[in-house]
Amino acid sequence: MPARYLDGYAALLAGVSATGRRPTRAELTARRTLGAQAAEAGHSLRALVGGHLAATRATWSAAPGSADSVLAAVEQAVDALAEGFEQAQYVAVRQEGSARREFIDDLLNRGSDLGRLAERAERFGLRLSHSHAVAVAQGTAVFDESTPAARSVGLAVFGRFGARSILLTTKNGRLICIAPGDQDDVLGYFAQLACAAADGTKVAFGRPHPGAGGVVHSYEEALNAIDLAERLDLAGPVVRAADLLVYPVLARDREAMADLVHHTLGPLQEARGGAQPFIDTLTAYFDAGCVAAEAARRLALSVRAFTYRLERIRQLTGADPSDPVHRYALQTAVIGARLLGWPA
């Protein structure tokens, strides 16, 4: 440790030993300042304290005063050193955390300067020339960096894979993991932990994309996948944007989709109880691979009651769900109804 961090210490001990006085406020302030400077320079507290104890031992033989006065002064001086050191570390951690949060917010914002992002990314372990994928966890409980759930997920992920090239953060109550695009096992482990950490959590994976713009692209895909999963009431806690690409295509022309829904399914509103029971019937039928017995079981209906509903759908709409020619239009209309929230 450089000798400059001992400046004034020998004089402090000599004065205390000669007079039995206590260290002055100015002397203790100087020790706090030197402790903070040592922290900012990257020295360890152990080395700083060790250097002062060694200086105490070297000065001790020349000190004519009482041992009690000297030891009390050493205690106060070391306490001031540690206080300054810890305060400097706390400020550094807060600044680092603030810089990290600012970087991640910019990274997930489509309007950010991509050139500046690439320059800052290396500091946080990301190589934006490579592809990255984003997983987003959203649950009934809010994820925040101060919550035990978010901390436990982060500790487990970093403990298994290391912190290099992986970023975990929270944003708008969601828990987010950014990982290299060729490390799908990282996102898989993250999803497993996030679902276990909070009940009702659903995790969506965006597709891997290259560059700084690729991170925000993957993030937006994951957000859209979660939204689609909720609107379509998709089963399972994990969804992948790559598996849902057909739905944005269907929803792209909203006016045409609304026209198909009203034309194909509109007559179901004339039935007693409205269209919703028949929408649920068709959803279960298509999800069950058009096997009536399995669809009836999922809806807790008898097969007879279920087939009756299918017949009523054929009567009202003129489209037969069991006919391959009609089935595609009906299934597309049902997907559109769920995307549009129809008939509610």
Question: Can you offer a commentary on this structure?
Answer:
- The chain is α+β, with helices and mostly antiparallel strands and 344 residues long.
- It folds into three domains: 3-95, no CATH class; 124-244, Reverse transcriptase/Diguanylate cyclase domain (Alpha-Beta Plaits, 2-Layer Sandwich), CATH 3.30.70; 251-340, Arc Repressor Mutant, subunit A.
- The chain has helices at 9-19, 25-40, 45-60, 67-107, 114-121, 148-161, 184-197, 211-231, 246-251, 254-265, 276-287, 292-298, 303-317, 324-340; strands at residues 131-138, 167-171, 174-180, 202-205, 209-210, 238-240.
- Strands 1, 2, 3, 4, 5 and 6 form a six-stranded mixed beta sheet that branches.
- A hairpin with a 2-residue loop joins strand 2 (167-171) and strand 3.
- Helix 2 (25-40) packs across helix 4 and helix 6 runs antiparallel to helix 7 (184-197).
- The longest helix is centred in the N-terminal third of the chain and has 41 residues, at 67-107.
- The mean pLDDT is 82.
- This is Helix-turn-helix domain-containing protein.
- InterPro entries: CdaR-like_regulators, CdaR_GGDEF, PucR_C-HTH_dom, PucR_C-HTH_sf.
- Residues 112-227 form the CdaR GGDEF-like domain.
